[in-house]
Structure formats: C-alpha cells, structure tokens
C-alpha cells in the first residue's frame, strides 16, 4: 500500500491530536493554526521535490495523482455529461456538465473554471467540487477547461474564459437551466479568470453574470507584502510556485499590470457582478483576496467575504480527507444557492 493510499484510507481518520503529533509542532502564522491534516500533508510533501523545480509534464502528473487522493468522490446522484465548448481563436475546450438530481429545467447555471495557475489541471481538477455545487446549490454546473501554458501563454486562457462564458449564456437553456440566472466562478486561477470575464464584459457593454464566485483568486500579480511574505513558504501554494506559474503563463514582465492579468488593477470596478469571495488562512494570496473584496465594496459592488483561517490554498480539492474543507464547501454551496435565489 502506498503512503498516499494509507493516508486517505486510514491515517486521516485518526483524531486531530494524533495527526498533529505526526505532523510535528503546530503550524501557526498570524494567529492562525493550520489544520493538522493539511499540516501532515505538508510534512509529507517535504520529501518530494518542490513543484517549482519540476518539468511541467511531471508537475501535471504529480498533481493529478495527489489530488485523486484528497478530493473525495463525485456525488453519485448528480448526472454527468462530457461535451466540448468553443474557446478563443477557434479552440475547442473540454467541458463537463453536472445536473442535480430531480432537475426540472428551472435550475440556474454556474459556469466554473478550475485552479492550476493556468498551467495545471483539467475538468478532473474540480470534478468532485462541481458535483457538490450542483447537488447542494441546486444548480446546473458547467465545468470548463481552458488552454494551458506554456503551450498556450497569456492571453489564451482569458480568451477561452470570455468565449466559453458567452457561449454558455447563449446556450443556457439547452444545457438544462432556466436560461436566466447564469453565474460564473472558479478557484485560484479559475477565480482569476472569472473576475477578468466580469471586467471584460463590463468594458464591452455586455450583461454581467448573476454573480461571481471567487475562491482564493489571483487578483494582483504585482502584489508584495502581507501574506505574500508571511505565507511565502505555505503548502501547497508558495511564493516560488507562484513564480513558476508566472514564468510559464506570462510573457514580458510588464504584463503583470494588464487588468487581464491583475483585475485588481482595473481602475473602475463599478457595475461588476455581485461577488462571493473566499480565502484561506495559509495562502500567499490571502491579503490580495481580502483587498479585492474591499475594492469591490468600495466601488458599490455587493461582495461577501469569508476567510477560512485553518485551511490552505486548494482546499476545494481536499474535501475527501479534511473535514474543515468539507464544511467550507458546504458553506460556499449554501452561499451560491442563496445568491441564485436573489432577483
């Protein structure tokens, strides 16, 4: 039996105190204490080379293998259908549609983009989480992949998100939704893309999504200080890994100030979609995520913000082994359901 199988099958069911003893001294930063299960995963990760020294193909394979052990199983009563949707530059994107049990055709639609720094991942990366959203929020969820760097650098992922969301708007009823309530969301890179789509549509004079769901999104690639320093060595996202992503996704250094890369630098945020914004306590992005929520509020945008202080980046893919992650996803799904209920 591999350690990962043992980890998910036996070790993670042990009492928190035992797990903390296995992980070692409590990880405490800025008054936050890291969940012992994540602390144990972080300790085990220390025996492997960090992502930022790996070739892209090796990092992709390792990430998929690791998350397969932590994300848990897809909700069995949610109907799944694979399809392709159009992206930018004529690209055809893989997508997966999740329909809640006993759907009536009057459900709202959420278009979702996965994490992975615009380098890693696919529809598999948010498969379990999208099934949770579909069932608990009573929504049809369209999980859309996008082109990845370094094969497709900026702005390919942005163009794909803009094009695929517009396609979803035009085809919402054929996807089994009511065709009226259409939200957009994602985690990490997917949250970043969702925020950019909202800005792009506002700039183009197009209608806004019903709301934007932003889970620990990258919003400012020029950000320094705050948790970019105090959480620089966090697990699984660290400052060096962020730079590894940037090195593959971005081209010239001055691209970091483009609003399509750093939506926080868009000077006018008035009129953007209402936002549900979430961060984790152990994440280099926490400061900029909180700051983005405040920017939206200052611009008159309704923005709800929650921080899960004991969790880390990527907790959407940890619900299979971290009870606090399951609890957080339950909260978020409830917020999504409430947001869709608003007129």
Task: Give the topology.
Layout: H1 3-9, H2 16-23, E1 28-29, E2 32-33, H3 36-45, H4 56-68, E3 79-86, E4 92-99, E5 107-113, H5 127-136, E6 140-144, H6 156-170, E7 177-187, H7 189-203, E8 212-215, H8 227-230, H9 239-249, E9 275-282, H10 286-298, E10 303-312, H11 323-341
Question: Can you give keywords for this protein?
Answer:
343 residues, alpha/beta, Rossmann fold, two-stranded antiparallel sheet, 19% strand
Q: Return the domain count.
A: 1
* CATH fold group: Rossmann fold
Q: Any idea what the radius of gyration is? A: 19 Å
**Which CATH class applies here?**
Alpha Beta
N-to-C SSE string, H for helix and E for strand = HHEEHHEEEHEHEHEHHEHEH
Total number of strands: 10
The stretches of 5 or more residues where confidence is low (pLDDT under 50) are: none
CATH architecture: 3-Layer(aba) Sandwich
The 3D shape can be described as globular
Describe the structure.
The chain has 343 residues and is α/β, with parallel strands linked by helices. It has a single domain (55-341), classed as Rossmann fold. It has eleven helices and ten strands. It has an eight-stranded mixed sheet, with helices on both faces. Helix 5 links the parallel strand 5 (107-113) and strand 6 (140-144). The protein is globular, with a radius of gyration of 19 Å. It starts with a helix and ends with a helix.
What's the short version?
The chain has 343 residues and is of the alpha/beta class. The chain is 36% helix and 19% strand. It has one domain: Alpha/Beta hydrolase fold, catalytic domain (Rossmann fold, 3-Layer(aba) Sandwich).
């Amino acid at each position: 039996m591999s350690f990962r199988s043992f980890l998910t099958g036996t070790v993670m069911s042990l009492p928190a105190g035992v797990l903390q003893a296995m992980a070692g001294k409590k990880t405490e930063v800025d008054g936050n204490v890291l969940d012992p299960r994540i602390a144990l995963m972080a300790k085990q990760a220390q025996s492997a080379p960090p992502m930022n020294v790996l070739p892209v193909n090796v990092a992709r394979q390792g990430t998929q293998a690791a998350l397969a052990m932590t994300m848990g199983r897809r909700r069995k009563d949610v109907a799944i259908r694979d399809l392709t949707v159009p992206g930018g530059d004529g690209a055809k994107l893989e997508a997966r549609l999740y329909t809640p049990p006993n759907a009536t055709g009057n459900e709202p639609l959420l278009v979702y983009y996965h994490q992975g720094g615009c380098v890693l991942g696919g529809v598999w990366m948010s498969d379990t989480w999208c099934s949770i959203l579909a069932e608990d929020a009573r929504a049809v969820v369209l999980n859309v992949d996008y082109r990845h760097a370094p094969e497709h650098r900026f702005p390919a992922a942005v163009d794909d998100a803009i094009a695929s969301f517009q396609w979803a708007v035009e085809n919402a009823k054929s996807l089994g939704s009511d065709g009226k309530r259409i939200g957009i969301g994602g985690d990490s890179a997917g949250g970043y893309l969702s925020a950019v789509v909202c800005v792009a549509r506002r700039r183009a004079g197009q209608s806004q999504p019903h709301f934007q769901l932003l889970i620990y999104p990258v919003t400012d690639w020029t950000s320094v200080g705050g948790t970019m320093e105090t959480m620089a060595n966090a697990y699984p996202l660290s400052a060096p890994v962020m730079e590894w992503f940037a090195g593959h996704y971005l081209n010239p250094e001055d691209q970091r100030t483009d609003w399509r890369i750093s939506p926080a630098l868009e000077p006018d945020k008035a009129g953007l979609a209402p936002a549900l914004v979430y961060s984790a306590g152990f994440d280099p992005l926490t400061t900029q995520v909180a700051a983005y929520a405040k920017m939206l509020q200052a611009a008159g945008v309704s923005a709800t913000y929650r921080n899960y202080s004991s969790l880390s980046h990527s907790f959407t893919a940890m619900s299979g082994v971290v009870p606090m992650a399951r609890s957080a996803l339950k909260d978020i799904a409830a917020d999504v359901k409430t947001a869709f209920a608003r007129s």
